[in-house]
Specification:
By secondary structure, the protein is an all-alpha fold. It has 2 domains: 10-129; 131-226, no CATH class. Helix content is 81%, strand content 0%. The chain is built from 11 helices and no strands. The longest helix is centred in the first third of the chain and has 33 residues, at 2-34. It is globular. One of its GO terms (molecular function) is ubiquitin-protein transferase inhibitor activity.
Length: 226
């Protein structure tokens, strides 16, 4: 019993450590961005990404490591709560939007709850940033999939985001679609060719998201015709 109790204390302490680290880095980043210190804010965001990468790597490398999974989920929760804050300056949101979609998408391969949380974080960026900016960011996030070992699960959050971006763009729809679609198709082709590294459920989810994007483009085309 004492062993189990000790283990619980350890898990609690690790989760608290993770939350504190995420909070510290995010608060530091916001202060630097608001102060206009671009160099230091970029350095702080890099520190955040490296920390998130260490958590996702630990959770992905050992699916049975419950403390590592708890740490990883605590980190995503902290990120989500922070981005949701109505008091967060737009400059900080914009700075974080360039790197965090890639970082949180790496967690999607751990389990469905991580996938859902990563999608929720990207959805918050979609609400707070312009759709044209997010289109570019999400296409860049997709392009990074060639560096991922679990590419099929990694691309699910940006694909989900893209299906919402297309219907949010207010003008120059054709130009935006023309740029994005080849990127999307190339990534889907690469994932399909590497299907040995993904299970059937992952591939089904990928193409389900791809159909969602196609439906969004169809909806946009209908609006243009009308």
């Amino acid at each position: 019993m004492s062993s189990m109790s000790g283990g619980s204390e350890t898990v609690s302490f690790q989760a608290s450590e993770t939350q504190n680290t995420i909070q510290r880095i995010l608060q530091s980043c916001s202060k630097l961005v608001e102060a206009g210190d671009i160099h230091e804010s970029d350095s702080t965001i890099s520190e955040l990404v490296k920390f998130l990468d260490s958590l996702s790597d630990a959770a992905l490398s050992d699916p049975n490591n419950e403390p590592a999974q708890n740490d990883a989920f605590d980190a995503l929760n902290e990120i989500h709560q922070y981005i949701c804050s109505p008091s967060l300056a737009q400059e900080a949101v914009d700075a974080l939007s360039f790197e965090l979609p890639k970082a949180v998408s790496k967690f999607a391969g751990i389990s469905n709850r991580f996938l859902d949380k990563a999608i929720s974080i990207i959805d918050q960026f979609l609400e707070k940033c312009g759709p044209r900016d997010m289109l570019s960011i999400l296409c860049n996030t997709l392009g990074y999939s060639s560096n991922m070992t679990k590419a099929a699960s990694y691309i699910l959050p940006p694909l989900s985001g893209l299906s919402k971006v297309f219907t949010s763009i207010k003008r120059r729809h054709f130009e935006q679609v023309q740029v994005a679609v080849p990127i999307i198709l190339n990534v889907l082709k690469a994932v399909a060719l590497d299907s040995d590294d993904a299970d059937d459920a992952e591939l089904e989810s990928v193409f389900h998201r791809a159909v969602g994007i196609a439906n969004s483009i169809y909806e946009v085309c209908n609006k243009l015709v009308c």
